[in-house]
Each structure stands twice: as structure tokens, then as C-alpha cells.
Amino acid sequence: MAPRGFYRRLPGTGRTLMSSVTLWAADDHLLQVEVRGFTEIYRRFYFRDMQAIIIRPTGRVKAWILAFGLLTLATALVAALDSGLGWNIFWWSLAGVWLSVAVAHLALGPGCECALRTPLQTIGLPSLGRLRSARRVLEALRPMIELDQGALTREEMLARLRERAGAATPLEAAPDPASPPPIAPPIAVSGPREGLARPVRHDSGRAHEVLAYVLLLSAAVAMLPLLYFNVVLNASLSLVFVGRVVCIVVALARQNHSDLSIAMKRFAWTAFGWECVTMAVGFFGGMVLVLHLLSSGRLDPASTAPPSPLDIANFVKDNPAFKVISLVSSLASLTLGIWGLLAHRRLAAAREEPWRILPT
Amino acid sequence: MLWCTACQASLGWESLAAEGQTRCSRCGATLEISVFPALFRPMAAGRVGEAIQSDQESACFYHPRRQAVVPCESCGRFLCSLCDVDFNGRHVCAPCLESARGQGALPNLETRRTRHDLIAMAVAIYPIVPFVFPTLFTAPVALYLAARALRAPGSLVHRTKVRCILAMLLATAQIVIWALIINLIVTETRTGG
User: Fold this and answer.
1) In this structure, are B35 and B49 located in the same domain?
2) Is the CB of B5 inside 8 Å of chain A's CB atoms?
3) Are residues B52 and B19 located together in one domain of the fold?
4) Please, what is the average pLDDT of chain A?
5) How far, in Å, CA of A132 to CA of A55, rounded?
6) ipTM over 0.90
7) Domain that holds residue B31
8) What is the predicted pLDDT for the residue at B169?
9) Which of A249, A248, A267, A257 is nearest to A343 (CA)?
10) What pLDDT was estimated at residue A357?
11) Which of B67, B93, B111 is the last residue of a domain?
């Protein structure tokens, strides 16, 4: 029985809106503590049962840094355009907040997902979301695991792996090229994502392909309002925007628990991040537009009449910042669209190839 | 066998043998795999109770047709090898283990604990945030909860009782302030009358 004060805190904390997860080491086991409200939920993993620890670096943190960096730039742009002193201070402060979040993410290092393999299951360790902390925990645990299980030299491990490969069933040793690779039972993830893990589903990636084409269409039409103004044309362009949002939502929903490649999933998430940034910039741009219309007297707050669409169009056309934003938006949509199509082609090509037979 | 944590495809033994980072041959995900000797250990075979051969043999309390191999060290009932639970070197039956777990006598089997110290802290702090008036009622409650949390089993990992003491101090301060305010009001009313 473990006496109190027996546990040693390990690096890393996994946080969600409602809970936090930490890892603690005892002499013979690892304790995962999840705090939900006023309750602590414990899971124990004994060192004698640990078969493997798998760390998978992810681009999640890079995406956050990019999103917050773009938010900083957008807010700084609005601050530079806005001449009012009070608003100026507000925008620069907001830009400072976004920048500090981006710098904090940068300082904490790249992200990862960590999983622990035991004879019965593979468990996700949500507290190890950073590569640095995951490696530190692994180095801290390794001597304790070796104390319980004994150490294997690299040669011994290779010999045992070869033995295993030799002793495998013919199907395991040389899989049928036409058949898909064996799929693991779903990972049981503890902590905030606890619950019955869903099985991995096959997805053709069609939703992502459609999203890529819609992005290319967006890239083509993004500059149109700056070159030619027409109310009907502008209204129909907003349909492209709605279609893009729908495509992103569908792609994200389809890729959840699917067998799509990492590149495809990353593409959909990047498109989502870019859409968020576009919306944020559009919101700030709209505010700047209203401020400028007010200061130029073209919009009267006392009047109930809406501003003339032609006034707005002229202002947008004449403003260099809006031109830059439209150009950047068009280029980003083009890049994303091409990336999505290439990722889809790569996925299709990989699926047409037979499963690579590993040398025995 | 190990699986890629991104696409769930099985990993070849070359991936496991690779030093440093390796790539899943199916989805291309980068993986750092640390393998331990337990991966090569065969799964222990499950035990089944032996059937009773003669009238001279004792029967299991829970399985009358199975041979008893050991008595439960807690309740004394005879157990077959199927019912015998080896817990930290002690032979006990499942109901005794369950009742001990229910009573909180076995910290190693606990799966959750309520943090009474956090509740006391929340009751002592949160009512201050929107308005001060609720503290007239919540301060005594927070004091009671903090006193209870001092005796209640705390977290398995956070040994400190500092939150209980802070909640008690905060609640006491609120009570003292309210007592002074009430005293002031009463004195003013009497002087005015």
C-alpha cells in the first residue's frame, strides 16, 4: 500500500475548459490524476505492464503560433490604420496580447501526442502535449521501468523483434498486397477525452477535394469587388464564402476518426484556422470602415438611413489596406487550394499502391 | 504488436527497432517509439478452479463443485483458484476486496476522491466576487466545510492542508468583518435613538 506523499510530480499538464490532467510517479506505478471540478479521478499504470511509449510530434502548436501571429498582424494593421487615440491604445494592447500568446506557445516548444501501450490497451496521455515534457517524462520513467522489467540492450531487443517477426503467422509476416493493413483497436484515451473510443472509419477524402476546389474559386473571385462593383455580384460572392464555411465544417466532421492521411487532416484544420483569421480581420475591417465613414461624415449616426453601398465600395476600392488584405486572402486561398488538391492526389496514389511488404 | 497512433495501422518490427524517430509506412506520421521488455512477455494464462474429485476435499464457497485452495484472509471463506485474489501478497476474496475498497481502506484501488479543501476554498472566495452580501451566509458554511475538510481524506497527491487553513482564515475574517459591521449598525441605531 502506497503511503501518503509517495508520489512525485512529473512534467506536463493537459488542460481543457473543465479539467486538468497531470502525471505522478510512485515506486511501482504511474498515476494519472484528472481534476474535474472538485473531484480527482485516478488511473494507475504499473511499470511492470508498460510495453511501449509512443510519442508522435504534431503540428498543432505551429498552427496556434501561425493563427496568433496572423491575429497579431491583423490587429496591428487595424491599429495602424485607426487614428483615434483611445481605439489605438485598445488595438495595440490587443495585438500585444495575441503576440504574447504566440511567444508563449513558441517558448513551450513543439506539440505532440503521447500514448502508453500496456498488454490490454493503448492509453493516450493528455498531460504530455509538448515534445519537451514528453521526452523528459520518458527519461524519468525509463530507469523505473527498467528496475521493474530489467533492461534490454539494443542487440537483445533486435534479436527478440526478429524472433517475433519469424514466429509470426504467415499472414502477419507477409501480408496480402491486395488487403489493407491490419487496423488497431481504437485507442482508449483517458482524461478529458474519456469515453468509448470510436472505430476508425474509411473516408475517400471527397469532402476535402471539394473544399480545395472551393478555395481555388475563392482565390479567383476574392479580388473581383476591388476591380468591379456590382450589388448582385457582391451578393453572389457571399455565397462562395458560405459554401467555403460549409465545406470546411463538412471536411472537419468527415475526417474525425477517419483513416485520412495527416496531410489531409492538417489541410482541413489550416483552412479552418485561415477562415477564423479571415473572419476576425473582416470584423476588424468592418469596424474600421464604420469609423472612417463616421469621421468622413458619409454615415450619420442620427439618421436611420443605411450608408450608400457605392460609398462603401469607393472607400474599399481607395483604401490600400483593403487591397492588401484582399490580395493576401486570395493568395492564401490559392495556396491552400493547391495544397489540398496535392494532398488528395497523394492520398489517392497511396491507396492505389499495394501495401508495402516490410523486409523480414 | 504496436500500432501507429495516428492511423492505427500496425507497425513493422523495423519501425520498433529504429533508433530515434521512425515513420509510419501507411500515413507517414513521425513516431518516437520506446519499447520495453514487457512487450515480449507472453500473457499469463488465466486460472480455472479444479473440479472436486472426492468427498475429502473442501469446496469453494462460491463454486461448490470446485476445489478450495486457500481461505480468504479477511472473511475466512474457502476459495478456489478462480476466486482467490492475490492482493499485495494477501489472499482475499472479491467481495472482501470490494468492501475494503468501498470503505477507502485501500488507497491503491481508489479511482476518485472528492477535494473537500477545494470546495471550502470555493465557498470562501466565489461569493466575494459578484457581491459581498452573500458572504454573510456563506462564511459560516465555508468555515464548517473547511473544518470538515481538515479531517476528511484529501488528495492522493497533494498532501498539503494549506487550502483548508486559508479557507478557514478567509471565512473567519468575513465573519469578523460582518460582526463589526452589525455591531456598528446596532451602536449607530442606539445612539441615534
Assistant:
1) no
2) yes
3) no
4) 80
5) 11
6) no
7) 2-39
8) 95
9) A267
10) 44
11) B111
